[in-house]
């Protein structure tokens, strides 16, 4: 076999086959456990039946003795009746003849009877069960009731007094009038074992055949049940295979059963919708970026072509100024696009710094150029406000907010910073025309301008607020437009961080 070929495994790849085998193996273990339990329970029940037969034999012997009749030797259960003052057994049978008890009893004689007799306790009676050591048979025969080496056997016995019997009954039994009789019945494990073995053998055979048939049926049922259950999954697989990155508009059919396949189909549809939205956003972003780049490039190219066509009539300083302005606009737009691309792929900083936003805003307001038109830029907070993050990214976020306010403000821009519980709340408020309520969220989309002509005249790219919101989210904060009667007010909320001295 080629060394590069994957090794073939005996375990099937099909989910249906794997499930069927797993269910069959589980059922086999369960059936084996049940078979083991049934086997031992049947054996135990058979042993109890044998003990019950021995108990019945004991009762029958006692009844015969009370009637003065000597029990016959023919019996399925070994028994022996012994008495005090008597060397030989009173009666025996059921295999006890292997010990030749006609000359001497095998089982121990009872103690001498009490005199006078105890008061009659009524019709209730009892017997004792205990193991007794029995010697080896005198004349062992193969297939006999006892083992050739003897052994310890479970024995049931009960006692009866001779004075409870009539004189004729005592004479018929050949015992003294004051003798104590004891009736022994031996519970042979071999007899019980033969009964139990026959029953368990038949039961085991039936259980084995039923178990094999049951395993086949269970495996087949599991196979077809999984096959039917996986039909929606196969349909989902076929449909999702046709989805491409350029056209993720396909949607899978959601089953109405409400089981796990329904949740899977819903999740896949949600994922496909996100892919569709992302693809649409990417296409829109590329189209908007191309449009934004084309405008300054067209202006720059037209200016240069006119200058080259009429060099003697061209105001070269003005042409160079126009080209520089459009080039700066292209440079700003390229930087914004590059930053957005980085924000879409970068993860939050693993070990952020602690930044004092009050100090950062104070420095920006002092250094911000206000040369085009007179504006008042103030910050009314002096208390430190700390937040975790990247200082450069915080500066870019705040500068974008100030640039947006400066393009639309009439006379003044006011910045406030407050510590509110676990948050730092920063607002940038201008006295410009404001933003309509229906556009409160749309202005954070990329390349969106509510006044395109004025924004381009002032150098806006339509990406400043989108970048600011992405930076706020990157630092686990929010950036929203809050309603105001005059102008626009942007509110930035960031998680508050302890001051360096408080750590």
Automatic annotation (TrEMBL):
<dbReference type="InterPro" id="IPR036890">
    <property type="entry name" value="HATPase_C_sf"/>
</dbReference>
<keyword id="KW-0808">Transferase</keyword>
<protein>
    <recommendedName>
        <fullName>histidine kinase</fullName>
        <ecNumber>2.7.13.3</ecNumber>
    </recommendedName>
</protein>
<keyword id="KW-0902">Two-component regulatory system</keyword>
<dbReference type="InterPro" id="IPR036097">
    <property type="entry name" value="HisK_dim/P_sf"/>
</dbReference>
<dbReference type="InterPro" id="IPR003594">
    <property type="entry name" value="HATPase_dom"/>
</dbReference>
<dbReference type="InterPro" id="IPR003661">
    <property type="entry name" value="HisK_dim/P_dom"/>
</dbReference>
<keyword id="KW-0472">Membrane</keyword>
<feature type="domain" description="Histidine kinase">
    <location>
        <begin position="288"/>
        <end position="498"/>
    </location>
</feature>
<dbReference type="InterPro" id="IPR003660">
    <property type="entry name" value="HAMP_dom"/>
</dbReference>
<keyword id="KW-0597">Phosphoprotein</keyword>
<dbReference type="InterPro" id="IPR005467">
    <property type="entry name" value="His_kinase_dom"/>
</dbReference>
<keyword id="KW-1133">Transmembrane helix</keyword>
<keyword id="KW-0418">Kinase</keyword>
<dbReference type="Pfam" id="PF00512">
    <property type="entry name" value="HisKA"/>
</dbReference>
<feature type="transmembrane region" description="Helical">
    <location>
        <begin position="207"/>
        <end position="230"/>
    </location>
</feature>
<feature type="domain" description="HAMP">
    <location>
        <begin position="227"/>
        <end position="280"/>
    </location>
</feature>
<feature type="transmembrane region" description="Helical">
    <location>
        <begin position="20"/>
        <end position="38"/>
    </location>
</feature>
<dbReference type="Pfam" id="PF02518">
    <property type="entry name" value="HATPase_c"/>
</dbReference>
<dbReference type="InterPro" id="IPR050428">
    <property type="entry name" value="TCS_sensor_his_kinase"/>
</dbReference>
<dbReference type="InterPro" id="IPR004358">
    <property type="entry name" value="Sig_transdc_His_kin-like_C"/>
</dbReference>
<keyword id="KW-0812">Transmembrane</keyword>
């Amino acid at each position: 076999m080629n060394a590069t070929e994957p090794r073939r495994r005996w375990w099937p790849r099909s989910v249906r086959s794997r499930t069927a085998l797993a269910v069959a193996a589980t059922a086999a273990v369960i059936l084996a456990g049940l078979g083991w339990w049934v086997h031992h329970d049947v054996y135990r029940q058979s042993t109890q039946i044998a003990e019950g037969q021995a108990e019945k034999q004991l009762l029958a012997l006692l009844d015969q003795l009370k009637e003065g009749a000597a029990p016959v030797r023919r019996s399925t259960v070994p028994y022996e009746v012994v008495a005090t003052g008597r060397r030989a057994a009173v009666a025996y049978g059921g295999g006890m003849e292997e010990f030749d008890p006609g000359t001497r009893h095998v089982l121990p004689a009872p103690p001498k009877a009490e005199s006078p007799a105890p008061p009659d306790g009524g019709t209730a009676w009892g017997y004792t069960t205990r193991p007794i050591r029995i010697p080896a048979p005198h004349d062992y025969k193969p297939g006999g009731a006892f083992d050739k080496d003897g052994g310890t056997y479970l024995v049931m016995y009960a006692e009866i007094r001779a004075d409870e019997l009539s004189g004729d009954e005592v004479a018929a039994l050949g015992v003294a009038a004051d003798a104590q009789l004891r009736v022994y019945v031996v519970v042979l494990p071999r007899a019980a074992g033969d009964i139990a073995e026959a029953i368990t053998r038949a039961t085991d055979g039936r259980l084995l055949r039923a178990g094999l048939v049951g395993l086949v049926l269970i495996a087949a049922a599991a196979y077809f049940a999984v096959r039917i259950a996986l039909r929606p999954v196969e349909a989902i697989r076929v449909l999702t295979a046709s989805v491409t990155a350029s056209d993720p508009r396909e949607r899978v059919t959601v089953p109405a059963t409400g089981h796990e396949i329904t949740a899977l189909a819903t999740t896949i549809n949600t994922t496909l919708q996100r892919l569709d939205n992302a693809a649409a956003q990417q296409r829109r972003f590329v189209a908007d970026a191309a449009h934004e780049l084309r405008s300054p490039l067209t202006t720059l190219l037209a200016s240069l072509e006119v200058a080259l066509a009429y060099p003697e009539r061209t105001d070269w300083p003005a042409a160079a100024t126009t080209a520089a302005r459009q080039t700066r606009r292209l440079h700003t737009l390229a930087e914004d696009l590059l930053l957005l691309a980085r924000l879409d792929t970068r993860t939050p900083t693993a070990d952020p710094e602690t930044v004092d936003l009050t100090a950062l805003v104070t420095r920006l307001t002092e250094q911000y150029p206000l040369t085009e038109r007179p504006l008042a830029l103030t910050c009314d907070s002096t208390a430190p406000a700390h937040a975790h993050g990247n200082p450069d990214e915080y500066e870019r976020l705040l500068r974008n907010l100030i640039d947006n306010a400066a393009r639309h403000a009439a006379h003044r821009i006011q910045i406030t910073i407050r510590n509110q519980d676990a948050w730092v709340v920063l607002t940038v408020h201008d006295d410009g025309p404001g933003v309509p309520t229906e556009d409160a969220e749309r202005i954070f989309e990329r390349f969106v301008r509510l006044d395109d002509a004025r924004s381009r005249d002032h150098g806006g790219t339509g990406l400043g607020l989108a970048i600011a919101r992405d930076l706020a989210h990157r630092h686990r904060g929010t950036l929203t437009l809050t309603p105001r009667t005059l102008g626009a007010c942007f509110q930035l909320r960031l998680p508050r961080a302890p001051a360096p001295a408080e750590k």
